[in-house]
Design goal:
This protein is α/β, with parallel strands linked by helices and 395 residues long. It has two domains: 145 residues, ATPase, nucleotide binding domain (Nucleotidyltransferase, domain 5), CATH 3.30.420.40; 186 residues, ATPase, nucleotide binding domain (Nucleotidyltransferase, domain 5, 2-Layer Sandwich). Helices cover 38% and strands 20% of the residues. The chain has 15 helices and 14 strands. A hairpin with a 4-residue loop joins strand 1 and strand 2. The structure holds adenosine-5'-diphosphate.
């Protein structure tokens, strides 16, 4: 069966086609600047690019161009749209109700709509992608795969906030967690690399990219994670602040006359390593600057590492027994410097990084043979995870 994967952002749309007989990627594409002047579709098949530059004022128009490109006579990925067995959609927020991947019906769409309150940029775009597919290729099964789903096995003691209980009852204010598709993939892949069953594995999954989060996984199930009601909680990220004393918000809102929207913008887009360093959200730039002696860049990276270690230590206690720590994401997979700094001096805890093995960007074991806790680089693949979940539900 062939499966189309759709990942809709507010102004962009990524897609991939998988042949599930061997999980091969047949082709993929990206639409940029939807609803903005200069819309552009770029499709890649066998290393060759096919580009369309036409006006795409909304997601439905963009989806029409995607379906046309998929079956383009010269540059297409498929002979006919009939070959598509199902469509898998990445959806940001499934709330408390949608705890696993699911075939989309009206009720599912209602829940996605309800959680626009906590995913105001992503959930509306995800919904537009779903509705565009329903109207352009009616009758095909559409599956939603949620960023929040993997974390819904957390116990209430992990996900409740220390504020009056009535706000949980009234609005469902609690920790949900994100990047779940990646944490799920990393968990499964780590079990495979260790040659054990997922249900026997205790692992701390460390996804470090533009957005970053950790998850504590016990017997294959998530028991805690760093992101919260929204992806803002937890680690210091590219442009997101992560944890801070909530008084910082009320103080600044009063002193600087900031509205809730301005505060949201500041915390999500102007903070993190970008805000502290005042130069870049890209870890390559920051590492280069720190090596060249830039004190601010060094402070920024030290802060990032401090927060990762703080959660890592907490999750080691929550799990009791840790079999593995697995790094993924743009930073986790590529930065030997960050991995080495995060795991420095943890020999007493049975975590020993092998300097030679760490000097790689490939999926592999990077701890020493006598390290009690195994350390891995895992090449995370959220699209493949979405394709697998979709296939499981429709086959
Ligand atoms: P997203 O969360 O948008 O999917 P990625 O997982 O692709 O992001 O991660 C992007 C981050 O990875 C950027 O901060 C980038 O600087 C970082 N990165 C990529 N390659 C390297 C590298 N070789 N060394 C350090 N950081 C890297």
């Amino acid at each position: 069966m062939k499966i189309l994967i759709i990942n809709c952002g507010s102004s962009s749309l990524k897609y991939q086609v998988f042949d599930m007989t061997n999980e091969e990627v047949l082709g993929k594409g990206l639409v940029e600047r939807i609803g903005i002047e200069g819309s552009k579709l770029t499709q890649k098949v066998n290393g060759e690019k096919y580009i369309i530059e036409e006006s795409m004022p909304d997601h439905k128009t963009a989806m029409k161009f995607v379906f046309d490109s998929l079956v383009n006579k010269e540059h297409g990925i498929l002979e006919s749209l009939d070959e598509i067995g199902a469509i898998g959609h990445r959806v940001l927020h499934g709330g408390e109700e949608l705890t696993e991947s699911t075939i989309i019906d009206e009720k599912v769409k209602e829940t996605i709509k309800e959680y626009i309150k906590f995913g105001p940029l992503h959930n509306p775009a995800n919904l537009m992608g779903i509705e565009a597919c329903e109207s352009i290729v009616p009758g095909k099964p559409n599956v939603a795969v949620f960023d929040t789903a993997f974390h819904q096995t957390m116990p209430a003691s992990s996900y409740m906030y220390g504020i009056p209980y009535k706000y949980y009852e009234k609005y469902r204010i609690r920790k949900f967690g994100f990047h779940g598709t990646s944490h799920k993939y990393i968990t499964g892949r780590t079990a495979e690399l260790m040659g054990i069953e997922k249900d026997d594995l205790n692992v701390i999954t460390v996804h470090l990219g533009n957005g970053s989060s950790l998850a504590a996984v016990k017997n294959g199930k998530c028991i805690d994670t760093t992101m919260g009601l929204t992806p803002l909680e937890g680690l210091i990220m590219g442009t997101r602040s992560g944890d801070l004393d909530p008084t910082v918000l009320t103080f600044l809102m009063e002193e600087e006359n900031m509205t809730p929207q301005e505060m949201n913008q500041m915390l999500n887009k102007e903070s993190g390593v970008y805000g502290v360093s005042e130069q870049s959200s890209d870890f390559r730039d920051l590492e280069d600057a720190a090596i060249a002696g830039d004190e601010r860049a060094k402070l920024t990276l030290d802060m990032f590492v401090n927060r990762v270690r703080r959660f890592l230590g907490g999750y080691m206690l929550e799990l009791g027994r840790v079999d593995a720590i697995s790094f993924a994401g743009g930073i986790g997979e590529n930065s030997d410097i960050m991995r080495a700094d995060i795991l420095e001096g943890l020999e007493e805890y049975g975590i020993i990084l092998d300097k030679e093995r760490n000097n790689t960007r490939s999926e592999s074991l990077i701890s020493t043979d006598d390290s009690k806790v195994k350390v891995f680089i895992v090449e995370t693949d959220e699209e493949l995870m979405i394709a697998r979940d979709t296939y499981e539900l429709v086959k």
